[in-house]
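Late entry, evening session. Most of the bench is empty. Finally got around to the prediction I had been postponing all week. Sequence below, unchanged from the version circulated by S.P.
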Amino acid sequence: MIKLLNARRVDTFKLEIDFSDHTQGVFDAATYLASRSGPLLEKLRDEVYFARFFIDAGALCWPNGLELS
């Protein structure tokens, strides 16, 4: 199973991410959020809250319980 190892904020709603299979990519949350809705996603629209991301068990997470893997 491929896991997320590292994430760095490179713009307001963009993260540069590194995976356990040695690949890298950019997660554009603005594009992701433009096509999705839900109670856990609403807080991510605030740039200060978005910046509170962390990695837990190989997934991208936020304090409200949202986990993207």
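Two things to note before I forget:
The first strand starts at residue 4 and ends at 11.
The longest helix spans residues 29-34.
Will write this up properly tomorrow.
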